[in-house]
Amino acid sequence: MNATYLFRNFTITDPVSNFNLQTLDILVIDGIIAQIGSIEPSDDYQLIEGNGDCVSPGFFDIGTQVGDPGFESHDTYDAVSKAALAGGFTGLAVLPNSSPVMDSKSMIEYCIHQNQNSQLDIFPIGAISQKCKGEQLAEIYDMKAAGAVAFSDGLQTIQHEGLLVRALQYVKPFNGLILEQPSIQSINGEGVMNEGPISVGLGLKGMPSMAEFAAIQRDIEICRYTNSRLYFFNATTSKGLSLINQAKLESVAVDCGIASYYLLLDDSKLVEFESCYKVNPPLRSLEEVEAIKNAVLDNTISVICSWHQAKDYDHKNVEFNFAHYGVINLETCFAAATTAFKGAISPSQLVEKLAINPRKMLDIPVPTIQVGEKANLTFFNTSQKWMYQQKNIQSISFNSPFIDFEFTGMIKGVFNKNCWLPNPHCIQ
Fold first, then answer.
1. pTM of the shown model
2. Nearest Cα to Cα of residue 309 among 65, 79, 39, 138
3. What is the DSSP string of 29-92?
4. Helix (H, G, I), strand (E, B) or coil at 415
5. d(CA 288, CA 277)
6. How many angstroms separate the Cα of 34 from the Cα of each of 58, 122, 371, 402?
7. What is the distance between the alpha carbons of residues 391 and 290, in angstroms, rounded to a whole number?
8. Which of 263, 239, 416 is nearest to 350 (CA)?
9. pLDDT(2) > 80
10. Could you say which of 3.30.70.940, 3.30.1360.60, 3.20.20.140, 3.30.830.10 is the CATH number of the domain covering 96-110+118-303+346-361?
11. Cα distances (Å, whole numbers) of residue 121 to 94, 282, 359
């Protein structure tokens, strides 16, 4: 349907745009930015008032977990799309940990076909190994040809060094990217939370930070050896972050991201055994949280992501040791980051880590706010306070640590594929 939208009085936050940091009007006709400047309203325009709020290229998430196929009771593509759009995301790269696993050309095509009419841009991440078991390489080249944008075993870390070497060597000719959640399972053992004074006090088995540090150290050296590209989903330890920073200075092609809730929550939240705080990697100590925030500010961490993993009631409302890992965070990703930094991070830095760097990592074209470009936009305010309420949650599951939590920083809406969608959480 043909439509004309006038987004009036928005502060453009796009480092690539000629209009960066200017408060202007944006006219969009049939999904294309037709004019930027001071524009007179018309009865023919759908008017959206900005009042100085920010507008940026649409946010993009690396590493969303979708239940379809196999775990539709947790989440579906439709529900994930609604949650992502409410959270300011216009694009996602989804993990391969479905059932069956996305480890073949047909499964990559299934993901793409399921979302061809979505307002969201959804890209599949193919599995590195068959069934994500970490034993035999999957059909990497066929999946690449079918549309996979990167390769990972997602929630499962590659434990076999030789397999990781072969995977990095295999993707190198086409400049492919391997994604890893760094963890040595034999060190973590049966741990269920961060190892430290709090885990000892609670009598829960701990997951040592060494398990992550050792994996990062191992993987960096393998990446250096293969001269290929490697990305860590979440680096949550100061020692591991120091290794990544040093490797980047030495031009090793490694990089990393962080889920926004690791910027705001620490392991003291687990003192009442609430399973909504049970995540993997685990929430770390308050000192490590500060180290993670500093790593975002100094660009050791290039990407802020959601690490969204929906779990239904039956998988979370059990004894802590048996509860599944994971939280929903697409709708709260931006707000958790802005609340954590309390104004210490600029809107431009947020846009780089939420919209620009994720796409660059995956070699996906980055939208920009220029005349003649497709309108792929996220609208937000970094200082507005609001409460995240269960009645407005778009996901099928409600496993969030933030229900009835007051945030500072709000998504106002998104525009993609010639459609404006206001954030349902704006209706309090």
1. 0.97
2. 65
3. ETTEEEEEES----TTSEEEE-TT-EEEEPEEEEEE---TTT-TTT--HHHHHHHHHHTTEEEE
4. strand
5. 16
6. 18, 26, 5, 39
7. 32
8. 263
9. no
10. 3.20.20.140
11. 11, 30, 12
The residues facing 285 across adjacent strands are none
Four-point Cα dihedral 25, 30, 34, 39, nearest 10? -40
Residue 94 makes CB contacts below 8 A (sequence gap 6+) with 64, 65, 66, 80, 111, 122, 123, 124, 125
Identity at 378, one-letter amino acid code: T
Distance CA 105, CA 102 (A): 8
Side by side, which strands form the sheet with 254-259?
59-64, 89-94, 121-126, 150-152, 178-180, 230-232, 254-259, 303-305
Torsions phi, psi for 69 (to 5 deg): -90, 160
Tokens standing for residue 109: 């095509």
306 with 288: CB under 8 angstroms?
no
pLDDT level of residue 426 (50, 70, 90 thresholds): confident
CA dist., res. 132 & res. 96, Å (int): 8
The letter for the amino acid at 85 is L
Instruction: Tell me the β-bridge partners of 196.
Output: none
Reduce the DSSP state of residue 275 to 3 states and report it.
Answer: helix
- Over residues 8-27, the pLDDT tens digits come to 999 999 999 999 999 999 99
The domain locations on the chain are 96-110+118-303+346-361
The residue written with tokens 């309420």 in the block is 389
